[in-house]
TrEMBL record:
<dbReference type="GO" id="GO:0009898">
    <property type="term" value="C:cytoplasmic side of plasma membrane"/>
</dbReference>
<protein>
    <submittedName>
        <fullName>Pilus assembly protein FlpE</fullName>
    </submittedName>
</protein>
<dbReference type="InterPro" id="IPR027417">
    <property type="entry name" value="P-loop_NTPase"/>
</dbReference>
<dbReference type="GO" id="GO:0051782">
    <property type="term" value="P:negative regulation of cell division"/>
</dbReference>
<dbReference type="GO" id="GO:0005829">
    <property type="term" value="C:cytosol"/>
</dbReference>
<dbReference type="GO" id="GO:0016887">
    <property type="term" value="F:ATP hydrolysis activity"/>
</dbReference>
<dbReference type="GO" id="GO:0005524">
    <property type="term" value="F:ATP binding"/>
</dbReference>
<dbReference type="InterPro" id="IPR050625">
    <property type="entry name" value="ParA/MinD_ATPase"/>
</dbReference>
<feature type="region of interest" description="Disordered">
    <location>
        <begin position="340"/>
        <end position="363"/>
    </location>
</feature>
């Protein structure tokens, strides 16, 4: 295994305009070094521009539903465009998201090596020391532990990434939502209208119950926009419509099972998937939905929809925007550009009619 420590310098490196640059002990002898990778030539200082990233928090309603995979694939897709993208592991007690991505042998800093960070940190310093997966900067836990949520290092590094990236994906796992420290990190993004929370759940009763609990844990975060991502399961007795109805969140994507992912992860490639495959299409749809939600009200949740009878010879029951519900129930899964919801799954027979937003005109 490659040594992840950086060659220490014997004095703190202070950049112009950053009098509180944090330094970190790198060995037992007390030698300190900055978070800057040692340069081969003269240092060139550049003025940093603060970006204030959009934050997408991904929380798993229960283990094994693929929340970390969804977060990683969303970050990977965004990294293909302009701007920096970071994936921050805030929920793993050990092992870390680095194992999922296959970067555990890659040189770079992890949470356990950054525990002594203090103060204000230039975002570029963090960028230079983190491992990178598919263009995504990864701040992960490892075998020695996860994020030290009780230490000042976490808000210092979080602030640096939010200031320098266009998107920060926070992987909360199944436990991060219950941490007051995590909620405090998310509150700043929520206050400026830049926080979306993806609750990833399975298509079953246990998953729905877990999603309700996950949402309740983060309800106190101001300005958070909650969305449901459903992991599809063959033969499920709970339909997407019913899951969204019970949880009380708008369904923005359904994620199919991709059997090739396990093999790719085992080979150290990470959760790579074809952009034309079902999972790739689902992530692309999710990517297209989220930017449209920034700075706007969340999409109406499914409990705000009602069935209006569509009786023969009574066309007056139809109103603009009504959606037929029989024989296929449309799921509220909008894709910008086509203006239509996409029918994702057949459900048990329902009364012939239309779905209408509560309070809309018509009978």
């Amino acid at each position: 295994m490659r040594d992840r420590r950086w060659t220490p310098v014997h004095r703190p490196v202070v950049r112009p305009g950053c009098p509180q640059v944090a330094v970190q002990p790198l060995d037992a002898g007390g030698t300190t070094g900055s978070l800057v990778r040692p340069a081969a030539g003269p240092a060139h200082h550049t003025r940093e521009v603060k970006v204030s990233a959009q934050v997408v928090a991904v929380v798993g309603a229960s283990g094994g539903v693929g929340a970390s995979t969804v977060g990683a694939l969303l970050a990977r897709r965004r990294a293909r465009g302009p701007g920096r993208v970071a994936l921050v592991d805030l929920g793993s007690a050990g092992g870390g998201v680095e194992v999922l991505l296959g970067v555990e042998e890659q040189a770079g800093a992890r949470w356990t090596g950054l525990r002594d960070v203090r103060g204000t940190l230039p975002s570029q310093d963090v960028q230079e020391v983190l491992p990178v997966w598919e263009g995504v900067e990864v701040l992960s836990g490892d075998r020695e532990g996860g994020a030290p949520l009780d230490l000042p290092a976490v808000p210092a590094l979080w602030r640096a990434l939010v200031d320098g990236c266009g998107l920060v994906v926070a992987d909360l796992g199944t436990s991060g939502a219950g941490s007051p420290a995590v909620r405090s990190l998310l509150a700043e993004a929520g206050a400026r209208g830049a926080l979306d929370v993806l609750v990833v759940t399975g298509q079953d009763v246990v998953g729905a119950a877990g999603a309700i609990a996950a949402r309740a844990a983060l309800d106190a975060v101001p300005g958070a926009r909650f969305h449901l991502v459903l992991r599809r399961r063959r033969g499920a007795r709970v339909s997407p419509v019913e899951a969204a109805d019970v949880v009380g969140l708008p369904l923005v994507a359904t994620v199919p099972t991709d059997r090739s992912l396990a093999g790719a992860v085992d080979r150290g490639l990470g959760p790579v998937t074809s952009p034309r495959g079902r999972l790739g299409v689902a992530v692309r749809r999710l990517d297209r939905v989220l930017p449209d939600l920034r700075g706007t009200a969340a999409l109406p949740s499914l409990p705000d929809l009602r069935v209006v009878p569509d009786l023969p010879g009574a066309p007056g029951n139809r109103a603009p925007g009504d959606l037929p519900v029989s024989p296929v129930v449309p799921v509220w899964d909008p894709v910008p550009g086509d203006g239509l919801p996409h029918a994702l799954e057949r459900t048990r027979p329902r009364p012939t009619g239309v779905l209408r937003l509560a309070g809309q005109g018509g009978a």
